[in-house]
Amino acid sequence: MGMMDKFKQMLKGHEDQADKAVDKGGDYIDQRTQGKYSGQVDSAQERMKDQYGRNDQGPGEPGQ
């Protein structure tokens, strides 16, 4: 079992909390870098959410 599989198992049932944590972390990085890397941070946030299965549960938010 790979590290990502273990991570997904730990998050199972807590996707909403994980979404909030990813968003909060991204906001912190944006704040510390004064938004200089906001595009890259947003991409990383979406990739993290996709990796732990947010989109496996149903459709994501439209337009993102």
Give a verbal description of the structure.
This is Antitoxin. Residues 31-43 have a biased composition (Polar residues). Residues 1-64 are annotated as: Disordered. Residues 1-30, 44-53 have a biased composition (Basic and acidic residues). InterPro entries: Antitoxin_Rv0909/MT0933 (IPR028037). With 64 residues, the chain is an all-alpha fold. It has one domain (3-52). It contains 3 helices and no strands. Helix 2 (15-32) packs antiparallel against helix 3. The longest helix has 18 residues, at 15-32. It is elongated and about 35 Å long. The N and C termini lie far apart (31 Å).
Strand content: under 5%
Question: Radius of gyration in whole Å, from Cα?
Answer: 13 Å
Regions with little confidence, pLDDT below 50 for 5+ residues: 56-64
Average predicted local confidence, pLDDT: 81
Integer tally of domains: 1
What structural category arises from helix and sheet content?
Answer: mainly alpha
Give me the number of helical elements: 3
As a percent range, the share of helical residues equals 55-70%
Shape: elongated
Biased composition (Polar residues): 31-43
Biased composition (Basic and acidic residues): 1-30, 44-53
InterPro entries: Antitoxin_Rv0909/MT0933
Region (Disordered): 1-64
